[in-house]
Amino acid sequence: MGGAVSAGEDNDDLIDNLKEAQYIRTEEVEQAFRAIDRADYYLEEFKENAYKDLAWKHGNIHLSAPCIYSEVMEALELQPGLSFLNLGSGTGYLSTMVGLILGPFGINHGVELHPDVIEYAKQKLEQFVHTSESFDRFEFCEPSFVAGNCLDISLESSAYDRVYCGAGVQKEHEDYMKNLLKVGGILVMPLEEKLTKITRTGSSSWETEKILAVSFAPLVQPNKSDSAKRQPLHLPPPNVRTLQDLSRIAIRGRIKKTISQETVARGSGVLKSQPRYKRKRLRRRRMGTIVFLDKEVFASQIPNPFDDNNNYEEAEADLREEEEKVTYDMKADPPVNHLREKILSLPLPDPLKSYLLYYREK
To answer: Is 180 left (phi over 0), alpha (psi -120 to 50) or beta?
Structure first.
């Protein structure tokens, strides 16, 4: 599934294409997509395909096409502080992007059938938290992943504000999925070959909207022969943050506000993310021109600079050199992490500084 937009040279180029095609329509979704490099969730030997609008699968590891994820993110209407359940959470790519919007007081849970994929998702999550340059620009709701079949979720589990299912839902399981929602909540799932948005408007009332045609692998059914041995799948309880953690969130938020105020006071306007730089390739164009007057050929061909055989080889060499030349709109300055610099400058013990930085190395 995918191929709705052109491939990008990098993550930002891919997001530009998704915006142009109206798959990404809101600033919050755009920022989340730009903050998480899709290639980071690919195995090394497959990264050359990361910026194509195509799904990718290797063993149990799977990523949907970027156009699908962007439609899902827009349809969920995410807001800070909401609870989110991702059924078939896979690599954690979507859950991590959602966590950037939910903020520190949201709930972010994922259910994944394959334990090896959960380990892969945890590795990618740790990589993002400790090495991504984007991390300090957000207050993050870290996802928690549970191994199991999403059709075995305990009836005692809390309902969620937002639910997404990343596998085709059979009609017989539609009501089961709806009941995972709170009143006012939104469920997005593939249902009968359509990506479908369902809003719970009351205890027993719903609004349904078909978004676009899709093709997903169906949900894996629990083994009925082992029904006697099956245990209900219990989702994590709501995370109660410690006073220490709440203090860290508050201090980081206060420092970010101070940095923003200082930036405005210097006349620089609001803080902006780092500018993006796109490559331009100089391509050779050769054309012969035929001129028509009164539907008659007036001149057979306007002389082409390459018609001079004496200069042809030299011109060819020059153009080949220019064709390979890459120019940039401007030279990029190294990104500056103002939050990190501010924390490191505080008169605090080093262990406390490390804690405020989530023990990140850069």
So the answer is: alpha
Catalytic option among 6, 64, 157, 205: 64
Query: Which SS3 state, helix, strand or coil, does residue 116 take?
Result: helix
Whether residues 188 and 126 fall in one domain? yes
CB under 8 A, 24+ apart: contacts of 43-48: none
166 residue type, one letter: G
How many CB atoms neighbour CB 130 within 10 A? 13
Which residue, 123, 216, 210, is CA-closest to 166? 216
- Asked whether residue 77 is assigned to any structural domain, the reply reads yes
Final residue before a domain boundary, out of 166, 201, 234? 234
Domain co-membership, 197 together with 313 = no
Residue 158: active-site member: no
51-92 pLDDT, tens per residue?
Answer: 999 999 999 999 999 999 999 999 999 999 999 999 999 999
Residue 256, C-beta contacts closer than 8 angstroms, at least 6 positions apart: 339
Nearest 5°: the CA angle 205, 207, 212 is 150
Q: Quick: pLDDT tens for 205-237.
A: 999 999 999 999 999 998 776 666 778 999 998
Sequence-distant (6+) residues with CB within 8 A of 22 are: none
Closest residue by Cα to residue 191 from 213, 221, 206, 159: 213
